[in-house]
Design a protein that fits this description.
Blueprint: H1 16-27, H2 33-36, H3 42-47, E1 52-55, H4 81-91, E2 96-101, H5 112-125, E3 130-134, H6 142-152, E4 156-158, H7 168-171, H8 177-190, E5 194-201, H9 207-220, E6 224-229, H10 246-259, E7 263-267, H11 277-284
Parallel strand pairs: 1-2, 2-3, 3-4, 4-5, 5-6, 6-7
Length: 285
């Protein structure tokens, strides 16, 4: 196994708050992408009471080459899940909550209604909390996107392009780079809050392709972006072709800002929801 560079090594120590979060999530029978996607920041974020709820099941109808979330046919959406998520938000005293989901290509509405139900349940239980939705592409179906945007009115609408256009067919199962840009463009045109996206690097992309991606995101109306290192979840997933240095991440941040993105979080361990509250606080400051 290739030796990891020093910047890709983290030291974890037991933390009482993180253990409390874990116990609450298990007790309410909830799923987090932090666990399902084997996030390297789980201990850090949970100790800060920052986490990303994953709704609509634990199995995804797609099978992306980078993602650790199991694929398969999930069961029907749990009717009480919105209330359980809202209960967790209240008990954790969260000020900002991130909601994502597996892809639900098997459902007629691909889960759009369930997203809205979760948002409404959270706001009923915890007035004043800000909500970020990190959604699948919903096949670019504008009626479904409008349902999430107009009925849910998330404070942050996020959808990740994940990688550069050339690599999308290899990296993202059943996804399309231009379709994702269309999702973001549609959101930017009718969104009531921030529009955010994210990419991984280390999959064989060139610096020029990364720059083109930033320019495409800006043209679509995106203002906030995250940039992180792809880490291989298992030998069955796509290989890491480059361990990007912190200096390169700093270059990518500068490149993103030059392209016109106003908020950028860039680094080896950055993930799409990493310190997500920082983005909303820049607006409310």
């Amino acid at each position: 196994m290739r030796q990891l560079p020093v910047w890709l090594k983290q030291q974890f120590s037991p933390d009482g708050v993180a253990r409390q979060v874990e116990g609450l999530i298990e007790g309410l029978d909830l799923t987090t992408v932090c666990q399902s996607a084997v996030c390297p920041n789980l201990r850090e974020c949970w100790s800060l009471r920052q986490l990303t709820f994953m709704i609509l099941g634990e199995r995804c109808t797609r099978s992306c080459g980078f993602c650790a979330v199991p694929s398969g046919r999930p069961g029907p959406p749990a009717e009480d899940e919105p209330d359980r998520v809202a209960d967790a938000v209240a008990r954790l005293a969260l000020k900002h909550v991130v909601i994502t989901s597996v892809a639900r290509d098997d459902l007629a509405d691909e889960g759009a209604r369930h997203f809205v139900r979760v948002i409404h349940a959270i706001r009923r239980r915890v007035p004043g909390v800000t909500v970020e939705t990190l959604i699948p592409d919903l096949h670019g179906r504008e009626a479904l996107l409008a349902q999430v945007l107009d009925e849910g009115r998330p404070d942050v609408f996020a959808h990740n392009v994940e990688t550069v256009e050339r690599l999308t067919p290899v990296v993202r199962s059943h996804a399309a780079y231009r379709r994702s840009l269309g999702v973001l463009r549609f959101a930017a045109q009718r969104q009531h809050g921030l529009v955010k996206s994210g990419i991984m690097v280390g999959l064989g992309e060139s610096a020029g392709e990364v720059r083109d991606t930033f320019e495409d995101l800006v043209a679509a109306g995106v203002t906030h972006v995250t940039i992180g290192q792809y880490l291989r979840p298992s030998s069955a997933h796509l290989p890491v072709l480059e361990q990007v240095s912190p200096a390169r991440f700093a270059d990518y941040e500068a490149m993103a800002r030059e392209a016109g993105l106003s908020w950028v979080k860039s680094g080896p361990f950055v993930r799409s929801s990493y310190h997500a509250i920082d983005a909303i606080e820049t607006v409310h400051a």
